[in-house]
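FIELD: query
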Amino acid sequence: MFKNILKIVFLGLIGFSALVYFTANKPKQIEANQNSEVLMTKEALPQSFELVGNKNDVMKDELFKEGTKTLIVVGNHDSLVVVKELNNYFPLDIPFVMVANISSAPWFVKKLFIPSKLEELNKGSNIAMIYDFNGDTVHALEVTNNEKTAFIAYILDENNGIRKIYEGSVKEGALDGSMSEEEKKEVLQPLFELINE
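FIELD: result
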């Protein structure tokens, strides 16, 4: 009896593993650009975005207002938990949009676990967070760093030009509270200084 249960569990795990392996989408390949200031326009971004906590997609022109300078920060869960505090440490007078770089995660993780984690992460914040399920935004911004501690900042200027201004990282385990308030502020200081240049 016990042997039969073990066989069923073992075959179930093999079946589930095979299902994940054969149905997961291959991540999009992104060519690294040697230029540290990637220049592109707002037109390179997707036409609509799925925002964390929103049931309906938001159009590009609604999220990124015409003629308005906007900060765009791409990161993973560890880095976003720190980056979302930027306007709590420094007087940020431009709109701020975060992009959750989760496109390389397995599809079942993106469907089952990540949405609730991102909602919890962004709870109580008035910062728009793009849930980049398929990686369209990350691909458009030519992000090649998928490390969970990394973040990349861009400025969308008044003329719809997008330029990369900063690439930083946070301490491993920041999501679990491994960074003090002073460490978070120290990590975000260079970004804030570059925003105001």
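FIELD: remark
The domain at 29-195 is CATH 3.40.30.10 (Glutaredoxin).
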